[in-house]
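I hope you will forgive my troubling you with a question about protein structure. I am sending you one protein, given as its amino acid sequence and as whole-number tokens for its backbone shapes. Thank you for your consideration; the sequence and its tokens are set out here:
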Amino acid sequence: MPSTSVPHYRRGMVLKSFEDRLERLMEGMFSRASKSGLQPVEIGRRLVREMEASRTVDVTGRALAPNRFVVRISNEDFQRFAEIQDSLISELTANVRGYADQENLHFLGRVSVEFQADPTLRLGVFRLHPSYDERIPEAEPDGWLESPDGKQYRLKNGVMSIGRLSTADIVVDDQNVSRQHAELHPLGDTFQLVDLGSTNGCKVNGRRIDRHVLTDGDELTFGPITLRFRRP
């Protein structure tokens, strides 16, 4: 199938910008990983590169990206990642979805990232195998926002509004919060926070964002109010 018509130079700039943000995020999040051997950010970069290299279009004209990624790594690296593997898979999956959303890419099924130990590979070397797999069913999004005092806002499988309006799904009663401040959009088995052009903006983990795919533990700040995203 033919490739999409998005200019290569623009896609290259977007990809580089995304990789820069990915590097800053993952280097901070996975600082526990040893500096010797394979680094998580290397896998993250390769994932989005493979999405670009493998993108295609379906019969309706939608741009498609692979949704299944098998990452083969050395036995040593597999053992190094053992304690952080669940968090690493969650973050890599969220970044795949985030890049797809940014580039208007679609998937045939749920995004899956899997690590496999390969005794033939040396420390620091990995192989990535992307594929299109419609057999992986989409999972229902699940999660909630939690305030510092323990109050919980359960998230639903639909767009949820955040703001000062009394009709908002999540009401934040503070003058620093816009009437229609942000929305939470279901995305795979998680949610994406989207700023609605609010006056004071939205922050995730202390950084201002326009949109952000949420992972467990993210801190969402609206004006002086901070809520933590949690997943079961």
User: Anything to note?
Assistant: The first helix runs from residue 8 to 29. Residues 1-6 have pLDDT under 50 and may be disordered. Residues 161 and 168 are 5 Å apart (CA to CA).
